[in-house]
DNA sequence: GAACATACTGTATACTTAACCACTTATCGA
DNA sequence: TCGATAAGTGGTTAAGTATACAGTATGTTC
């Protein structure tokens, strides 16, 4: 596993736990900074990232107070919080498939900071096995039932065949399309008549294949259905 | 105390409790609005104020996610919420959700002989919780991304609201449609321009609601994706 | 029938917050 | 002495969020 927390990191963690118990919601960066005496919220931010790297918290990106303690049962988390020192920090807090939200330009898809949460489904549920779930943006694949907000199960591979649904990186943007190749000419088809196919000449443009779509999940975690 | 909550206020309160339990922090106005189907966050705001007036929550001003449930013991909050919701039918003891294939005419959906297999996903992954997965036949709902062979996660209930995707039994046939009711007249809409809506007069025809759709899974067990 | 509460839509604004960038200081092991 | 890590300061920006204001519609109460 990872290294134990430093003293300062432990202070930050304790404050999160205390805040959860006291107010029922996690603190903001600014609140952490104030409580710990930092003059900059950035100090809190970096501590949070360290805590996440070490697996003791989870950060929900772009969400105010988006800090989660590992315990599966949040109510248990509160109880634990009230009384105890975090004893088993080394406990793996995630099982299942990582859900990838926004992917920052230039960074690998599976970077820890892209992981929104985990879906408790074994990778082998899909064939070939899924390596992660990618949150779909836009409606370019709606004609084959892949809608905005859906989770696309993705099998990591660079070897794709014509007609497969692929996750590709084009100009640092991650996109889901149907793949077709003729020599050095690749066409990425949207499944939506309002979108035009994308033509790529591999001699002049770069195209990175991140994987193939192997499944779709919709409706988890309160997402609407319809 | 003050007057009891209205039905709508109860919905909002339940959603807050659910969010607290699921994520460990309270929802924002916008999240409430989205979950309850409001188009304006102000609707959520006014519900929150009503809930505060009636003493069931406390609002911390100018604070993101500043909603507190009064109960010191979080478990109590959950109990309250649970009891406010109609009793659930049966809790499956096996792990995973049963997958229902063909449903024989005249027999209950959840009869053992209909269960194809189990999908290793907790019922609570969906909201409200899924009771089973129904294998979809036909393309009548393709415009909202529900295709043939998909597994529709279904929450068992007879209480459905306009616009929801319902599993209904009509003339002993199980069908998935969008529900709309005006008095004793029910219309079941397909989401596919090639299908006509089905009109039912409850005075002369019987319509059994088996549940509402809460999610979709595609691609499990080798099923193709596109 | 006026007064009031509920239950919203729609728009706008200002505050809150997460997240980034550039930079500094100190410690520790190689 | 170099590089890596920890622990910050200070400031910026865009997104997230609470909240006010102006309406509409439908009931219930007196």
From TrEMBL, chains A, B:
Keywords (A to Z) from UniProt: Autocatalytic cleavage, DNA damage, DNA repair, DNA replication, DNA-binding, Hydrolase, Repressor, SOS response, Transcription, Transcription regulation
Entry's family note: Belongs to the peptidase S24 family.
One biological process term in Gene Ontology: SOS response
Recorded name of the encoding gene: lexA
Gene3D superfamilies, sorted: Umud Fragment, subunit A, Winged helix-like DNA-binding domain superfamily/Winged helix DNA-binding domain
LexA repressor DNA-binding domain mapped to chain residues: 3-66
Site (Cleavage): 105-106
DNA-binding region: 29-49
HAMAP family, A to Z: LexA
Organism: Halovibrio variabilis
Name of the protein in its database record: LexA repressor
A GO term for molecular function: serine-type endopeptidase activity
Quaternary assembly: Homodimer.
Active-site positions on this chain: 140 (for autocatalytic cleavage activity), 177 (for autocatalytic cleavage activity)
EC number: 3.4.21.88
Swiss-Prot/TrEMBL catalytic activity: Hydrolysis of Ala-|-Gly bond in repressor LexA
